[in-house]
Structures are given as structure tokens and as C-alpha cells.
Amino acid sequence: MSSLHISISAEPVFHLLGIPITNSLATSYVLTALLLGLIYLGTRKLKLKGTFTRVQMFFEFLVEGLYGIVESIAGTTKARLFFPLVMTFFIFIVPSNWSGLLPGAGSIGFNGLFHGKEVFIPILRGPTADINTTLALALIAMGMVQVYGFKFQGIKYLKKFFNFSNPINGFVGILELVSEFSKVISFTFRLFGNIFAGEVLISVMTFLVPVIAPMPFYALEIFVGVIQGLVFLMLATVFMNMATLGHGADEHS
After folding, report:
1. What whole-number distance in Å separates Cα of residue 100 and Cα of residue 218?
2. Span 1-60, pLDDT tens digits
3. CB of 113 closer than 8 Å to CB of 11
4. Which residues of 129-144 are buried (b: 16+ CB within 10 A; e: fewer)?
5. Where are the domains of the chain?
6. Cα–Cα distance between 151 and 78 in angstroms, integer?
7. Of 124, 136, 143, 156, which is the most buried if we count CB atoms within 10 A?
8. CA distances from 212 to 188, 209, 217, 224 (A)
9. Contact 93/31 with Cβ under 8 angstroms?
């Protein structure tokens, strides 16, 4: 690649039944398949007592540690309910954050037309470096926040947003409604911004000084990838737990 190409938008690499499949979406498919295979290998011998593989022990250590975090936020009962979802977020987000650091990601591709211009299109792109992916994750997380709000409070949950018993409560309700939408934006751009900026930084450093200079930034991005996955898990847990509590309640169960 003779020039540096940076694109905020994910580029289509092929079409499936007339639907364009972008490089970030293709990477998501590959990561999902690899994760499912790894989870299968790590859990297939769980029923055999006394049989422990290194992969299984790693997963047990990871699950136990993250479950402790969720339990400390939401309590034992709700942790069992929230954990499968937030753990899925973490398992998908962290490898997605790291995928853009793999050799060949962003550098192996082909020349093609994109928005009417001939540009270099990488075959693989980190899913979380695509705002469409982070927006989808944010919508799922905040959608489940509303689901759990109704599950625990029923129709009373709507009073959080539509309480016109007096002007102050009505105004607070509007602020709460705006806050729910702002959380989607916050989820989306926090994850996208950190990962995309890191990949751009590494691309620029690799283009300027190919061998030595990018190494410290790779180590930093590996760390940032884990932290962003952990932040997403914790914030999703906090928001879901808050939705289950009555307005103004201090109860923590």
C-alpha cells in the first residue's frame, strides 16, 4: 500500500443475496465462529468430574471474576438474570477490539470503488471500529434496560418518564427520557471513538515507522480493548439495575 487510507465508514467487500457485506461485518462473522468454537472446546468436558483443560480453567476464572463484578453491582438475584447478557457483550467486544490489531487487518485488501472513488479496501476491519456495530450494541443494551424496567416495575415504570402530577415531575420525566437516548449515544461513541482512534494512531505510526514505533501503542490498545469491554459490561449492569428500582428508591437487592 503506497498511501495511507483511513475511512470512518466500513467498506463493502462482497454482496450476499444483493446485500452488501462490509469488512467489519465479515470480521464479526469470523470472530463469532471462532468464539463459538473456542467456547465449545472449553466447555465440552464440563460434565466430566476431575477433567480440567487450560481453556476451561481460563473460562472459569474469567466468568467467576466478571460475575463477582456484576453481583457487587446488582446483587445475587439480579446478577443471575443480567449476567448472561452482559457477559455476552464482554466476550464479543474484547476480541472485536483486538481484531483490528491483528497482522493484515487494515493492510490486506484490494482496490475497489467506494462512494464513486477507487480506494484501497481492507478485507478485515475491527467490528467495534465501525459505528454501526457499536450503535447496535448500544441499542440492544438500552433496549434490555427498558425490558427489565417493565419486568420488575410493570406499567409503573412509565411514571419515570411520564409523570404529570405536577410541573416539576413532568420536567424531570422529560429529562429522564432524554437521558435514556443520551445513554445510547454515550455507549455508541465511547466504544467507537476509543477503538477507531487507536486503530488510526497505529495505522499512522506503522505507515511512518513500520517496525519499532507502533509496538508501545499495540500494548496500549490491548489494554484499552479490555477496559472498554469491562466498562460496557459495568455500565450496562448499572443501567439495568437502576431500571429495576422504583423511582427514588434506595433499595439494593
Report:
1. 10
2. 445 667 777 888 888 888 888 888 989 999 999 999 888 877 776 665 656 677 777 878
3. no
4. bbbebbbebbeebbeb
5. 12-244
6. 12
7. 124
8. 32, 7, 10, 20
9. no
